[in-house]
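Can't paste images in this forum, so I'm doing it all in text. The chain is below; anyone willing to post the predicted structure tokens underneath?
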Amino acid sequence: MNFIIDFMKKISVKDLVAFRKKSDRGKKSFVENIKSSKIEVPAKGGGDYWISSLSAISKSYKEDDLDITNGKIKELQKKIKGTKHRITKDMYQRNISILERYKNLDPAKIRVNGKLSFLKKSSGNPLLTIKGLQIETKPSLIYTFGSKGENIGAIWFTAKVEGYKIEEISIFCDVLYRFLKHNYSKKYQIASRYCIAVDMISGNMIDFSDIESGSLAKILPNTLDEISKLM
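Text version of the structure:
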């Protein structure tokens, strides 16, 4: 197992969600791929389909300013008019839809009432080793709050074309909590209520207190156990 850990590829949370939907044969292929020591060359161009909206949402949240969101919507509307390609128009329109959804979110559900101090993402190690597997975390924002800045929370905005189900978003939330615990628990008190994962397509939203209370099942451990058995 140590050999596998040393050479296996890191697994994104999106990969974990995709793994759960695969056939038995697909799951075996997935595991063989992450065990491979072959280095894959990233495809040129493309980038993140949702980068326009998700980066603007993070900035808008950080600044607590919806004008940033509105500005990005106007920018994308101009880009739609400036291209003749249907695929590109659809991409911009889907990003606009995400931005509009963000504007309609209840701030009380995603934000602490009070001053937030944001930490650099580089202040925490994004790679977690859970059940012998390397899981990659990509929180959108990490912040501290409280009268003495003693509490820490984080939010992870994510998206995919067909959206995520509640149980799938719970995997993001579980990993996010583990990220906070691994990196910051010695210095801060982790606020389960403000460890939040949001799917900006479906609008499904989970905070870790939902998992902690048992109102949502812990999907992550079973998923990782299944991958480990195929190693």
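DSSP finds ten helices and eight strands in the chain. Residues 166-184 form the longest helix (19 residues).
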